[in-house]
Each structure stands twice: as structure tokens, then as C-alpha cells.
Design a protein that fits this description.
The structure holds two protein chains of two kinds. By secondary structure, chain A is α/β, with parallel strands linked by helices. Chain A is built from 17 helices and 16 strands. In chain A, a hairpin with a 5-residue loop joins β10 and β11. Chain B folds into two domains: 87 residues, Translation factors (Elongation Factor Tu (Ef-tu), domain 3, Beta Barrel); 158 residues, 3-Layer(aba) Sandwich (Rossmann fold), CATH 3.40.50. The chains are: A alpha/beta, B alpha/beta. The structure holds flavin-adenine dinucleotide (FAD) (2 copies), iron/sulfur cluster (SF4) (2 copies) and FE2/S2 (inorganic) cluster.
Chain lengths: 461, 279
């Protein structure tokens, strides 16, 4: 057996200078040959640590073995039995914190590039149209068509339940369609995954805001025997600093929704406008901040600053995306915190006053508290500010359902293993329970809940 | 898809449509609104539910053609479908028996006020309505508002009908006569709501306004609709659209409404271009 290449097969990307001005996907993916080559690095461990690192326990060595043989269809079948959105996860999972973090190869060399392989499988593999199961006539409602809602809908339909998904927006996909930009996750991939779930017999009802159009109690009255709430954590936070309501200040959700869901980058072909600014400051250090900064660049900004109050090491964003952002020319302002947004006199942004920070005492997890450095204030001259400092739970559903319980942050209380909430017949999972997390953890919660709902409904009968 | 089943021109550039929308008609309350989108490239815009029939499953929308989307909507005919319609949105107006309620409506705001006026009347209040427009032609829903009010006062800027002057004039007179007023509701252009709130603040008459900032999703997800009330930031689509007029920062609202002035012009130009091209 030849020695294993210590390095991953690299994946081609659009060149930074070019891609920073278009919305096309940055990462081009492996060719079949590259995928097979990378697959050959896998040791096919008997006790694969990588599987433990995956929140939905994808059978990684097995699917990689199929790739090794060039059998992408077979590989897809294996992944799909655990993960209904491989095309999405292969692209956006923070693999360095999950499956790849614990891959045995990673101890001495680079781990197997599981994410890229998963993406290649989704890109090249095909599986037959699923046979639609005859429904057992038991109605289940799912609130929200993000990754958690789509996953559980597919799972329950596969078990024979008659599933209806209620989605507030005019397009299904949740954050995958309104938040994560085209250049990281082409919308066609989300559409394909949604179509697949529809062929399983899932009914999608768009433009339905649960809590307003129907309350959870009304859904029960209309015969939905179980309900899964997967409404995400989409309530944007602001810093409560002066100037935050000036024209030119966006929440990341607004900025990204205009561009992704409403296609404002095609204005005026599309009716929704967006302000393209010359100099932009994005506040935050997560994926949302990276996405906003890179989107601003693609809208034509000359200079984009990313303002983050801790250092690079603490950034919660995916490693790959931070690297991409830096390559594209985003100016990283680490250890900097905004103090106020300055008015140009006509109600528009003209600058962001900031203060430099240093890291103080650290907690057990190693996260250190940033503290302001005296008299280090300075001004970033910008004409747009995007706040990407996080989101919280939209309180609509809990406010209109008195017998649901929430924790002190407003997230729904639900059993970790089943998703069971305080209300009979109502389950919940994804960001609405955990707060903003990851696509795959939302899907993992949905998976578990599908089993629990099945058991619950069987007991009812 | 929600279908337009009736279309009626009420005044120049002011159109009334009835839409088949049973899900919305079933639960909508006074003060709530919908968000609609007309086609795949379309924008999402908010419009107040001006009336509804739970039995027929219909809602009425009265709108003014001010830009691309409202002009497109105005050009739609009976039997046409609305691409997307989401609602009801926003908190329902808080209705209670208070005594005397004065409902002030300006322009299309008159129609938005209609279900609120009716609800206050049904709750047992004495309702005095003041509705205003530029001239006689722009007075809408006189009959409908008259039917649910104990007293109806009409104003026109040019005096072509009713009292000459702004809606604040008869209100000011009532205040001067020290008539007992327990609540004022004002819905219309921002400048009008600001003027009414200014007037009532000086004499401590509680005033409720319905704010109309730019919106996108209408569910609390984007924060574009933020307004400042009592120096606190609120999302109008979620916490409102009704707020205490004495606490609202109207100047901020006006500024924020101007965010996309340049783009709105581009949209309109493009719209006229495509209209000309197709004729
Ligand atoms: C910009 C951005 C980038 C991200 N990047 C990554 C990444 O690279 N990798 C990663 O793993 N994670 C990433 N995340 C996080 C990830 O997207 C979320 O954790 C995940 O989408 C959560 O899934 P969910 O199904 O719980 O909720 P969501 O995806 O938020 O979906 C919730 C859905 O419910 C709908 N809804 C809400 N309220 C109601 C209601 N009352 N009635 C009906 N429908 C309702 C919403 O419209 C939405 O469609 C990112 C998030 C953002 C915002
Ligand atoms: C909760 C709510 C309820 C509303 N109810 C009604 C209603 O019942 N009838 C009605 O005619 N209008 C109503 N509006 C206003 C309506 O949404 C706007 O007129 C519409 O969005 C304009 O879209 P457009 O593409 O036609 O014009 P645009 O090109 O977007 O704008 C053209 C002009 O209209 C002004 N404008 C833009 N948005 C608004 C706004 N939100 N409010 C006021 N002026 C605006 C702009 O400053 C500009 O001068 C409501 C707004 C809100 C927030
Ligand atoms: S789903 Fe995500 S964590 Fe699981 S194997 Fe795939 S890339 Fe890794
Ligand atoms: S731990 Fe790494 S080498 Fe072992 S099976 Fe998993 S991917 Fe392959
Ligand atoms: S319109 Fe988006 S939060 Fe109100």
C-alpha cells in the first residue's frame, strides 16, 4: 500500500480578485477524479471517530469506500439515509469542529476532507425518485421550512405520516435561502433538496405565519395530531448604541434577505432595492458577519471592514470562510468594539466610532473577556454599517401559545432527546431551542424528534 | 392563489380591491395588515386590511398608487391572482370602552382606520370621525365611515367639500370647546399623525397612531421597520403598527421612509419604460 498523502487534495476556487465581484459559487468542488483520490486517503477505520463527530452520524467510512470505487450513486444512498441535505452540509458544515476534527488522520496529518467528499457525492450522485409511501392519514404539522423543518418533514413522510409544513416566507429553506449567500450555497441546491422532500409527499404551505395565520392550538383543532416547531432564531439583535437607526444601518438579516431572498443585487430587474455603499463596516465575528462583509464587497464596495471585539482565534465563523474573506480583501479589525454610529447631518451614516480592546480574564472554555483600552477611540469612515451581532428567538409563537415554556432567553424548552415541549403533542428543535447553531445540529435535532413523534403517535392510536 | 374578485377606483390613484383570502379573513383583527408580492421579481409591500368578511373569506385593501408595486397592483384586474399574500400581521388594535373616541383619517389612512372605528363603535364608545383629503375627489369612504360614527366631520385642503383646512382644525376646535375626548386615533400621512399627536400632547389626550415604515418580511426577522418610541427601538411589524403618538419619533420615521428615494425613482422610470414598450 502506498503511503498516505499527508495533505488533502486541494479544491479549486474562483480567484479572489474575480470572485469578489460576482455572486457565483466560490468553491468549485472536486472533480470525480479528485474525489476518488481524496477518498483513498481514508483508512476505513473499524472504530471511526469521524462518525462520532457528526451530529447525524453519517456513515463516513462506508460512503467514502463507495466514492473510492467511483460509485457516487451508492455513496449518496448511504449519506441520505442519515442526512437529507448532503449538498448543503458538504458546503456549510463547520467540518473542522465536527467530523474532520476527530478524523484519525488529523492527529499527524491533514484529516480526510469529509465535507468536500460529501459535496462531491451530492453533486455527482443520483438516486431514483423515492417511492411515495401510502399515507396513514395521520396529520402532522411542521412550523418553518428551514433545515430542521425540512428534515423532519422528509423523515415523517417516509414513515407514512401526512405532513404539512407551514412557512412564513414565500420561499422554503429558512436561513439557507434568506441568509447564506449564493456564492457559498447556490440556491438551486436548496431548491433541489426541497423538491426531493415534496416528492415524498410533503405538502408545503407558504405565506403562513404561525401565531397569526393559525395558532398552534388552531392547528391542533384542524386535526394535526402532532406539531414540530422549527421556527429558527431569526429576531435580529442591535447593540443599543447611538445612531443605530440612521439610514444606512442594516441588520445582517435585512441586508442578506434583500440580497439573497429578494435578489436586490439584480435591482432594477428585481424590484427590491439595496444601497450599495462605498465603505462598509460589518460588526461581528461569525458566519453571518463574514457573509455580510463578502456580500457588501460583491455589491461593489471599495472597502469593507470587519469589526470584531475579540481576536481572530475566537472568531466563531468557519475557518474556510474567514480565509476566503481575507483573501478577497476584507479588512479585519480585531479587538475593536463600536461605540456609536455618526450622523452626516441628514440622517445618514458617515462613520463608526470604535474603541480598541484587549483580552482579559478567560473562562473555563478559554474564551476571554474583551475589555476596552482607555483613550483608544478612533473613527472608521464608512457610509454603511451592518450589525451581525446575533439573533434571538422570535417570541410570536410562545406569546400566542400560553402553555409552551421558554427559557430566560426566550428559546423554547424542549427535551434534548425527543424535542418534547411543555405542551402535549408539540415538539421543537433547531435554532428555536438551542439559539443560533448550525445547519447540521438543527437537522440532528429534527431527526431525533421524528422518532419521538412516531412513538408518541403510535401510543395515541 | 389569492384572487382579486373586485376592483373599484375610489379617487385618482386610489384603488379598492377585494381579495379572496380565507386564511387572513378568518382571523384578521382591526389594525392588522398583510404583505403581498405580485410576481417572482416583485417586492414585498405592506397594506392594511380595510375591511373583511369572515363568511365570504375576503379582505378589502385600499391603496394609493405611489410607486412601482402599487402602480402594478392598480393595473391588475378582477380575476387576477396575487402571487403571494401573507397575513394577518402586526398586533391588533387595543379596543376598549373608553367613552368618546375621535378617529382621524387622512387620505388612504381613512380606509385603514375603518375597521378600528367600527370596533370602537361596537365596543360602545361614542365615535366622532374626522376624515380629510386634498379636495372633494380625494374624500374616500364617506358613507362607510359615516355609517359607523356618531358624528362625521369632513375636511378638504381647498374647501371644495366640508370644512376648509386640515383634519387638525376640527379637532383643535373640539379641544378648545373642552369637549370630553378619551382617545384620539390618527391614521394617515406621517406629517398628519405628527401634527395630531403634537396637538393632543399639549392637553394630555391619549393618542394612538398607526406607523408605516418600510418593511420587508413583516414577521420580525429583518428589523428594517424599526421605529423609536419613548427612545426605545421597536419593530413596527411586530410590536406595532399601533403606538402611542406622544412617544413616537416622527422625524426619524420620515427620514427612514426616504432611504430608497433614488431607487424608487429608478423603479418608476423602468416601469414607465416597460409600459411604453408593451403598448
Ligand atoms: C447568514 C448565516 C450564515 C450561516 N452560515 C452557516 C454555516 O456556514 N454553517 C452552518 O452550519 N450554519 C450556518 N448558519 C446557521 C444555520 O443556518 C442555522 O443554525 C440553521 O439554519 C437553523 O435551522 P432551523 O431549521 O432551526 O431554522 P431556520 O433556518 O432559521 O428556519 C426557520 C424557518 O421558520 C420560518 N418561521 C419562523 N417563524 C415562523 C412562524 N411563526 N410561522 C411559520 N414559519 C416561521 C422562517 O421563515 C424560516 O424559514 C448561518 C446562519 C446565518 C444567518
Ligand atoms: C403597516 C403598513 C400598512 C400600510 N397600509 C397601507 C394602505 O392600506 N394603503 C396604502 O396605500 N399604503 C399603505 N402602506 C404604505 C405602502 O406599503 C407603500 O405605499 C408601498 O409600500 C409603496 O410601494 P411602491 O413600490 O408602490 O412605492 P415605492 O417606490 O416603494 O415608494 C414610492 C413613494 O412612496 C413612499 N413610501 C414607500 N414606502 C412607504 C410606506 N411604507 N409608507 C408610506 N409611504 C411609503 C416613498 O417614500 C415614495 O415617496 C402601509 C405601510 C405599512 C408599513
Ligand atoms: S453532515 Fe456535516 S458533520 Fe456530518 S459528515 Fe457531513 S460534513 Fe461532516
Ligand atoms: S476517522 Fe478519518 S480515516 Fe478513519 S474512517 Fe473516518 S474519515 Fe476515514
Ligand atoms: S419588516 Fe422585517 S422586522 Fe419588521
Amino acid at each position: 500500500m502506498p503511503a498516505i498523502n499527508p495533505k488533502q487534495v486541494s479544491m479549486s476556487k474562483q480567484q479572489p480578485a474575480e470572485r469578489a465581484r460576482n455572486f457565483k459559487e466560490v468553491a468549485l468542488g472536486y472533480t470525480k477524479e479528485e474525489a476518488i483520490l481524496e477518498a483513498k486517503r481514508c483508512l476505513g477505520c473499524k472504530k471511526p471517530f469521524c462518525v462520532e463527530g457528526c451530529p447525524v452520524s453519517v456513515d463516513i467510512p462506508q460512503f467514502i469506500a463507495s466514492v473510492m470505487e467511483g460509485d457516487f450513486n451508492g455513496a449518496l444512498q448511504i449519506i441520505k439515509s442519515k442526512n437529507s441535505l448532503p449538498g448543503v452540509c458538504g458546503r456549510v458544515c463547520p467540518q473542522e469542529d465536527q467530523c474532520e476534527k476527530v478524523c484519525i488522520l488529523g492527529r499527524k496529518n491533514e484529516p480526510v476532507s469529509i465535507g468536500r467528499l460529501e459535496r462531491a457525492v451530492a453533486d455527482f450522485g443520483k438516486i431514483g425518485i423515492p417511492v411515495k409511501r401510502e399515507t396513514n392519514g395521520i396529520k402532522v404539522a411542521v412550523v418553518g421550512a428551514g433545515p430542521a423543518g425540512l428534515t423532519i418533514a422528509g423523515d415523517l413522510a417516509g414513515m407514512g405520516y401526512q405532513v404539512t409544513v407551514f412557512e412564513a416566507l414565500h420561499k422554503p429553506g429558512g436561513v439557507l435561502v434568506y441568509g447564506i449567500p449564493e456564492f457559498r450555497l447556490p440556491k438551486i441546491i436548496v431548491e433541489q433538496e426541497v423538491e426531493y422532500i415534496k416528492t415524498l409527499g410533503v405538502e408545503l404551505k407558504l405565506d403562513q405565519l404561525i401565531g397569526r395565520t393559525f395558532t398552534l392550538d388552531e392547528l391542533k383543532k384542524y386535526g394535526y395530531r402532532a406539531i414540530f416547531v422549527a421556527s429558527g432564531a431569526g429576531f435580529p439583535k442591535f447593540m443599543n448604541i447611538p445612531g443605530e437607526n440612521l439610514n444606512g444601518v442594516y441588520s445582517a438579516n435585512e441586508f442578506l434577505t434583500r440580497v439573497n431572498l429578494m435578489k436586490a443585487y439584480c435591482f432594477p430587474e428585481y424590484d427590491t432595492p439595496i444601497k450599495a455603499a462605498k465603505k462598509v463596516a460589518v460588526v461581528g465575528g461569525g458566519n453571518v458577519a463574514m457573509d455580510s462583509a463578502r456580500t457588501a464587497l460583491r455589491l461593489g464596495a471599495e472597502k469593507v471592514y470587519n469589526v470584531y471585539r475579540r481576536s481572530r482565534k475566537e472568531m466563531p465563523a468557519r475557518l474556510e470562510e474567514v480565509e476566503n474573506a481575507i483573501e478577497e480583501g476584507i479588512a479585519m479589525e480585531f479587538l475593536v468594539n463600536p461605540l456609536r454610529i455618526m450622523d452626516d447631518g441628514n440622517g445618514w451614516v458617515k462613520g463608526l466610532e470604535c474603541i480598541r480592546m484587549e483580552l482579559g480574564a478567560c473562562d473555563e472554555s478559554g474564551r476571554c473577556r474583551p475589555i476596552p483600552l482607555k483613550s483608544s477611540e478612533f473613527i472608521l469612515e464608512v457610509d454603511q454599517v451592518i450589525m451581525a451581532i446575533g439573533t434571538s428567538a422570535n417570541p410570536l409563537i410562545s406569546a400566542t401559545t400560553p402553555d409552551l415554556k421558554t427559557n430566560k432567553w426566550g428559546y423554547l424548552e424542549a427535551d434534548e432527546n425527543t424535542g418534547q415541549t411543555a405542551k402535549e403533542g408539540v415538539f421543537a428543535g433547531g435554532d428555536i431551542v438551542t439559539g443560533s447553531a448550525t445547519v447540521i445540529s438543527a437537522m440532528g435535532a429534527a431527526r431525533k424528534s421524528a422518532q419521538a413523534i412516531d412513538q408518541y403517535l403510535k401510543k395515541l392510536k | 392563489m389569492p384572487k382579486i374578485i373586485k376592483r373599484k377606483q375610489l379617487a385618482p390613484k386610489i384603488v379598492h380591491i377585494d381579495i379572496q383570502a380565507p386564511d387572513v379573513a378568518r382571523t384578521v383583527q382591526p389594525g392588522q395588515f398583510v404583505i403581498l408580492r405580485l410576481h417572482e421579481q416583485g417586492e414585498r409591500i405592506p397594506l392594511t386590511v380595510a375591511d373583511f368578511s369572515r363568511q365570504a373569506g375576503t379582505i378589502s385593501i385600499i391603496f394609493q398608487e405611489v410607486g412601482k408595486t402599487t402602480i402594478d397592483l392598480g393595473a391588475m384586474k378582477e380575476q387576477d391572482n396575487i402571487h403571494n399574500l401573507l397575513g394577518p400581521l402586526g398586533q391588533p388594535t387595543h379596543i376598549a370602552k373608553l367613552g368618546t373616541v375621535v378617529c382621524v383619517g387622512g387620505g388612504v389612512g381613512t380606509a385603514s382606520m375603518h375597521p378600528i372605528t367600527r370596533a370602537f363603535k361596537e365596543a360602545g364608545n361614542k365615535v366622532i370621525s374626522i376624515i380629510g383629503g386634498r379636495n372633494k375627489e380625494f374624500i374616500i369612504w364617506e358613507k362607510e365611515i359615516g355609517a359607523i360614527s356618531d358624528q362625521l366631520i369632513i375636511t378638504t385642503d381647498d374647501g371644495s367639500y366640508g370644512v376648509k383646512g386640515l383634519v387638525t382644525k376640527p379637532l383643535e376646535e373640539m379641544i378648545r370647546r373642552q369637549e370630553k375626548i378619551d382617545l384620539v386615533v390618527a391614521i394617515g400621512p406621517v406629517i398628519m399623525m405628527k401634527a395630531v399627536s403634537h396637538l393632543t400632547k399639549s392637553c394630555g389626550i391619549k393618542t394612538m397612531v398607526s406607523l408605516n415604515p418600510i418593511m420587508l418580511d413583516g414577521t420580525g426577522m429583518c428589523g428594517v421597520c424599526r421605529v423609536s418610541v419613548n427612545n426605545e427601538t421597536k419593530f413596527a411589524c411586530f410590536h406595532g403598527p399601533d403606538f402611542d403618538g406622544h412617544l413616537v419619533d416622527f422625524d426619524l420615521l420620515m427620514k427612514r421612509l426616504g432611504t430608497y428615494k433614488t431607487e424608487e425613482k429608478i423603479s418608476i422610470e423602468k416601469c414607465e419604460r416597460c409600459e411604453n414598450a408593451s403598448h
